[in-house]
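#lab-general

N.A. 3:47 PM
ok so I finally got the sequence cleaned up, no stray characters, all 457 residues accounted for. can someone with queue access submit it? mine expired

B.Y. 3:52 PM
send it over

N.A. 3:53 PM
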Amino acid sequence: MIKHILFLFALFYTPLVFAKTDFANGMKIGEVTADSAIIWTRLTDGPARFSTTEEQDREKFSKMRPPQVAPGLAGTVKLTLTSSAQVVYKSELTNVDPNKDFTHQFKINELKAATQYEVLLEADSGKTITGKFTTAPLKNTKSDVAFNVVTCQAIRSAEQHRVGHSVYGQMLKINPDFFIHTGDIVYYDKGYLAKNVTDARRKWNHTFALPLNRDFSAQVPSFFMKDDHDTVDNDSDPNSVYGDLTFKQGIEIFKEQVPMRELSYRRIRWGKDLEVWLTENRDYRSINKMKDSPQKTIIGEKQKAWLKKTISESDATFKFIVTPGPIVGPDKKGKNDNHSNKGFFHEGEELRKFIASQKNLYVICGDRHWQYASIHPEYKIREFGCGPINGEHLFGGAPKMDPKWHEFLNNRGGFLNVKISRENDIPKATLSWYDAEKTDVKTGLQKINNQIILEHK
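B.Y. 4:20 PM
back already:
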């Protein structure tokens, strides 16, 4: 009888513990233009809960499934945007989408150019997080601009497995206007292997629960591109399946995990002196094993027509095509899935001839695990490889320095900074390859491995 009474007392008087929504993955501020932005967020069941050891995180082919660092949770979120302490936008309470990993993207229009905004996100639990961004200047405005480019990161290559990739902290010190990740943001086929939708999402959740990775995206407008390892697995094409993870599923997961407009190929205009084109190299590609021909494609006819038309019409002083894979190269031996290789030579030649016909048009390339600058011996077009995010990610080999092609080649990790400025009203572009590990004793910033200045022609 006494035991029965004690049981009833415990049932009715013991406080019940309810899940509380949190922002373990923070926010990603992306796709910023002169008058619009997209704010991505995800609701989670409390803060991130790391349980793995450093040894497990660094294993190349782990037998473990990706850990559930930040499980999603249903709930509502509200966004408030302020500028100069004045509220300029306030959303309704909005449900995150459980079918899209408990994420939501706020698409905001009618913003003012060259204006700083502060972002406040509130969860139904009362939890809040903040961020900030500045919109682009109008296309006729002469304005200095700097942006950073990185490629190839993985959970196992984070220098501190509980903190993240050091480059994100390093980039904040030089205050870029925006940031481009060219792809291989997560590796489904390396480290904790992600062979289904659930595990693929877990890798995204883990990567952006690391504080350095998470917090950078709330302070710098970001543009995310995908590559093979963000879609299915190495060199993936429409026929690729990795375990139960299909190519189509990979495309959809990417769109839910980053701020993204309707089309994943798009352009960035930042004042009078800069326009950037981001290509989509997975969604429209032919099968890699298909025999090369004029019909074999990586970017598809619609995207290619858009690329040529908009570049030809652009009046920007400097123009850059940013691509997940090289167009010029040269690539390392054994690769055959990009425009610098024989597998897509016809389309590569078409693009190279077009680029050569344009003034002040350059290529910035991701995917390759070394920093480089090359000039095509015949067409004289220039390509700049940003290199991997750090020295932990230098695996995979690199070609040797070839003076017929390379003006710079360095087997180092870090990031590429591009700065457009004017001196005596004469515009120039300065490209600086920063090192992820080495620092400059004079400035305290990361060491610059190489620098190239482009003059306006």
